[in-house]
Amino acid sequence: MTSDLTAPAGRRIVIVGGVAGGMSAAARARRLDARARIVVLEQGHYVSFANCGLPYHLSGEIPDRSELLLHTPASLARTLDLDVRTGHRALSIDRAVRKVTVRSAAGTYTLPYDALILAPGAEAVRPPIDGLDHPVVHSLRTVPDVDRVRARIDALTDASGQDAPTAVVVGAGFIGLEAVEALVARGLRVHLVELADHVLPPLDAELAPLLAEELLTHGVHLHLGASAQSVAAMDTGSAGAASVTLSDGAVLSADLVVVNVGVRPASRLARDAGLELGARGAIRVDADQRTSDPQIWAVGDAVEVIQAVTGATAPVPLAGPANRQGRRAADSVCGRRTTPQAPVLGTAIVRVFGLTAAVTGASQTQLRAAGIDHEVVHLHPAHHAGYFPGAEQIHLVASFAPDGALLGAQAVGRAGVDKRIDVLATAIRAGMGADDLAELELAYAPPYGSAKDPVNMLGFVAQNVLDGTMPQWQAWELDEVLATTLVLDVRSRAEYDGGHLDGALNIPHTELRQHLRAVREAAAGRPISVRCASGVRSYLATRVLLAEGLDARNLSGGWLTLQAARPGVGRAELSVAGRR
After folding, report:
1. What's the superkingdom here (predicted)?
2. CATH superfamily to which 472-565 belongs
3. Helix, strand, coil shares of the chain as percentages rounded to 5?
4. Sign of torsion over alpha carbons 331, 333, 336, 342
C-alpha cells in the first residue's frame, strides 16, 4: 500500500462519487477555491453522465450515446483543474488520521483529506427473484447498463425475423415506465409487472388508471398486484430466452427482462466509518450536508432528507436535490454562507407515451399514513382556453389542510401538466394555501392558458370545499353512498343513458328547479349525493339543493374521477332504473 501525499498549497478536498451530487460539489468547490487540491474518486468509468437520459437513448430518441457523457476526466482537468480518477473505489475511511483507502487497477493506496464529501449514490434493490443472474436480466441505471440492453435488443431484432421479441419489465415506477416506453419504441412486445395494485405507486390511485389505459392502448400487457418469482432458461430455440413466473401463476416468455424495483442508499462506506445513519440506512446530515463527523459531508441519493409536508425522514433519489446538495456542501467546506437544506417536496415527472404524470408534496397515501387531516379536490380543466384549438384536459388532484394550506398535488394529462405542477411545487415551498392559489396572477393568452388558470380554479374549488360552500363526497365513498343516500345524476339524458350508477335518479341540472318535489320524495330524508361528468354541473345543482334546505354533497371530480377510481363503474353497475 502506498500513500498519495503530493499536494500543493491549499486544502485537500476528496470527493467520493461523481455524477450529480459529487460533480456539483467538485465544480462549486473549484469556483470558490482556486488553490484547493480537489480529487474525485469514481468507481465506474463515467464520472459525469446524464443518467436521467438513459431510457431515451435506449429508445433512440437520443441517438448519439456521446450526448449522455457530459464530461470526462480530461475535460474536467482542462476546464476546472480537477483530479478525476475513474476506476478508483474508496474502500474505507480512517477518520482519526483523515485518510481514505482507495483501490484501483494499479493497486491500493491511501489518500489524505482536509475535507471529505461522500456522494456514493444509490444501488439497485435486488428483489428476491430466483434466476436474476440469467443473461437476459438487466437493470437500467448506468451507461454500461444501457449499452448492454441496446446490444441485446439489436441482437434480438436482427435474429427475430417476423416475430417481435418480448420483454418483461419488473417494476412500474418512474424508471420502469420510461423503460417500457423505450422498449415499445424499439418494436418489442412488453409485459409490465408491478406488485402494487396500480402503475406508478407514488401516484394517487384515482389517477393511475389513466396511465394504465395509455399503456394498454400502446399494446403493453399489465400484470398488477403480482410479483416476479423466478426467471428460468427456456428451450425455445432462441438463444438466451427465458420464462418469468409470476406470483399469480402466470408464466411469461421473455427475450429480455428489465428489473427496476427501486434503489437503496449506497451507505456502506459511511456505515463502516461509524457515521450516523438514519432508520432506512441513509447518511444523516445537517442543513449544511455535514455528517456526524465535522470533516465529512454527504450529498445525493445516499443522504437522509426531511419530507416537507409529513416531516418523515428518508432518502429521495432525485437529480435536483442532489445537485443542490453538492453545491451546498462545497459552500460549507469552503466556509461560505450556505442556503440550508430545505425539506424536500419530492417533485417528479414522467412521460408515458402521450401522457405526462407529475407529483409534488405529499400524496394522499402519505398524508393518511402520517395522520394529517386533509381535504382532496379533483379538477379536469383544459390546459388552455377551451375555444382555442388543441385544448387538452388535465386531471388534477390536490390535498389541502383544514386551514387551506396546500399539502400536495398531482396531475396527469397530454399538455400543461409540467407547468401546473411546477407552480404548485413553488406554492407549497412558499407556504401558500387555497386563498393564495385563487389570487395567483399567471401568464394568460388563449394558446397558453385560461383567464382562470387551472391553478386558480384549484384555489377556487378548495375555498368552496373548506368554507362549506360546496360539501363534497369522494369516489372511494361510493359503496356507503349507494347504501345510505340518494344519488342524483344531473347530466343530460343522453349522458345518463351512456352509463350511470344503479338506482340513481336522473334530472338534468337545467331542470332541477322544476323537480325539487320529486327529489325530496325520492330522498325520503336521506342525504343527496349529486354527480355529473366533471363536478361543475353537480356543483350548481348542489347549491340549488342547499338553498332549499336539503342535505346535499357534490362528487369531487365527477364521473371522470369515479370511473378512474372504480373502473367497473359504468359497466357492471349500469341500470335503466330511476331516470326522470
Report:
1. Bacteria
2. Rhodanese-like domain (3.40.250.10)
3. 30, 25, 40
4. positive
Mean predicted lDDT score pLDDT of the chain: 93
**Three-state SS annotation for 462-490:** HHHHHCCCCCEECHHHHHHHHHHCEEEEC
Q: Given this model, what pLDDT does residue 162 score?
A: 64
Task: Evaluate whether 219 touches 184 at the Cβ level (below 8 Å).
Answer: yes
Which pLDDT belongs to residue 566?
Answer: 84
81 touches 37 (CB < 8 A): no
DSSP 8-32: -SS-EEEEE--HHHHHHHHHHHHHH
Segments of the chain with pLDDT less than 70? 1-9, 160-162, 235-240, 570-580
Which grid cell is 332?
A: 460549507
Spatial distance between the Cα atoms of 18 and 23, rounded to a whole number of angstroms: 5
- The beta strands (E) that lie in 77-216 are given as 83-86, 89-94, 99-104, 107-112, 115-118, 122-124, 137-138, 166-170, 189-194
**CATH superfamily of the 354-467 domain:** FAD/NAD(P)-binding domain (3.50.50.60)
Q: What are phi and psi of 260, to 5 degrees?
A: -140, 90
What is the C-alpha to C-alpha distance for residues 296 and 282, in angstroms, rounded to an integer? 15
Question: CA separation (Å) from 31 to 24, 114, 367?
Answer: 11, 18, 41
Q: Where are the alpha helices (DSSP H) in 338-485?
A: 364-370, 417-429, 434-439, 454-466, 478-484
CB 19 within 8 A of CB 51: yes
Nearby residues of 531 by Cβ (< 8 Å), 6 or more positions away: 487, 488, 489, 490, 501, 504, 538, 554, 555, 558, 559, 562
Report, at the CATH architecture level, how domain 12-122+264-334 is classified.
3-Layer(bba) Sandwich (3.50)
pTM, rounded to two decimals: 0.92
Q: Say if residues 291 and 297 touch (Cβ distance below 8 Å).
A: yes
Of the candidate CATH numbers 3.50.50.60, 3.30.390.50, 3.30.70.20, 1.10.260.40, the domain formed by 137-261 belongs to 3.50.50.60
pLDDT 10s digits, 115-174: 999 999 999 999 999 999 999 999 999 999 999 999 999 999 887 666 899 999 999 999
Q: What is the pLDDT of residues 145-154, one digit of tens each?
A: 999 999 999 9
Q: For the chain, give the number of residues.
A: 580
CA–chain centroid gap for 77, Å, is 35
